Amino acid sequence: TRFDNDEGGVEKGGSRKNFVIRDESADIFEHSVSELSSLSSSNRIVILSQIPEAGWDVPNQVFKLRLSGVYDGQLTTSYDVYNRQNESINNWLEALSKRANIDVLRVEDLVCSDKTRRCTNVRDNVSFYRDDDHPTPVFSKMIAKRFMQIVSKQ
Q1: 112-to-1, 9, 117 alpha-carbon distances in Å
Q2: pLDDT tens-digit readout, 62-71
Q3: Where are the alpha helices (DSSP H) in the chain?
Q4: How many CB atoms lie within 10 A of CB 75?
Q5: 79-100, pLDDT tens digit by residue?
Q6: How far is CA 72 from CA 27, 49, 117, 119, 139, in A?
Q7: For residues 72 and 133, what is the distance between their CA atoms, to the nearest angstrom?
Q8: In terms of DSSP bridges, do strands 118-123 and 102-105 run parallel, antiparallel, or are they unpaired?
Q9: Rg of the chain's alpha carbons, rounded to an integer?
Q10: Phi and psi for 140 in degrees, rounded to 5?
Q11: 13-25 per-position pLDDT tens digit
Q12: Is the pLDDT confidence value at 150 over 80?
């Protein structure tokens, strides 16, 4: 199902199903673990977790908030909703991260706070999203910096 932030933002588009091309009845998670485990026997792998969806087109939402006079330069969504709607993928990533030669870059750690239980879409008038779930150059640089920290570790 498409992401619903429970605050009025729902991703547009139909639901998409992921499947294994060679065998549509195969479990995508099991198949991926098998393939990644095989690759990691001779290669270091870094997997990026899912970019937290905003649920709304962030620039358009900022525009609407400005028009209504309630925009304060910040825009966030619920971290708990993100976690609930992504529980299966996050559990899968957690299991993969325990395997040798596999690191998971938790993108949500860059924009979501355990303390506030919110995920930042816009901070100090700087948007992290160019639409509902694609990063701006600012957010992309944050991801790249964390990626470089991971790969530079031996």
Answers
A1: 22, 17, 7
A2: 999 999 999 9
A3: 28-40, 58-68, 79-85, 87-97, 108-111, 137-152
A4: 22
A5: 999 999 999 999 999 999 999 9
A6: 45, 29, 19, 16, 20
A7: 21
A8: unpaired
A9: 17
A10: -60, -40
A11: 665 666 566 776 6
A12: yes
Residue type at 43 in one-letter notation: N
SS3 (DSSP) at 138: helix
pTM over 0.90? The answer is: no
Q: Report the phi/psi class of residue 49: left, alpha or beta, with left for phi > 0 and alpha for psi in -120 to 50.
A: beta
Please give the Cα distance from 101 to 44 (Å, whole number): 5
- Name residue, tokens 């199902």: 1
Longest dimension (CA), the chain: 56
- Asked if 8 and 56 touch (Cβ cutoff 8 Å), the reply is yes
Task: Match 């673990």 to its residue by tokens.
Answer: 33
Tokens 């195969």, residue located: 26
Helices 87-97 + 28-40 axis angle, to 10: 20
